[in-house]
Design a protein that fits this description.
Blueprint (H helix, E strand, L loop, with lengths): L45 H9 L3 H14 L3 H5 L6
Helix pairs in contact: 1-2
Length: about 80
């Protein structure tokens, strides 16, 4: 029975072939401790900017609104909802 299963009782000189194929290791992945990129309202829709403004802190809100005042094509639609008091 042992010989039918290929068991010879001796240790082979070379290790057996792996049962599963080896996966390739990529060195392209990277990690960084840098902060995430800031929200750029000039590359987003009016809806996306309004959602960002609704859920962000006052400092970030002021930064985004300043960009909209200066560069935003749809600034009036956004700024009309966030006028300074």
């Amino acid at each position: 029975m042992a010989s039918a299963l290929g068991l010879t009782g001796t240790v082979p000189d070379e290790p057996p072939e792996p049962m599963l194929p080896a996966t390739a290791v990529s060195d392209e992945a990277s990690a960084s401790n840098d902060p995430p990129p800031l929200f750029d309202p000039t590359r987003r829709s009016v809806k996306a900017v309004l959602i960002c403004l609704r859920g962000t802190d006052p400092g970030e809100r002021d930064r985004v609104l300043a960009i909209e005042r200066r560069f935003g094509e749809a600034g009036s639609a956004i700024l009309s909802r966030y006028q300074r008091i």
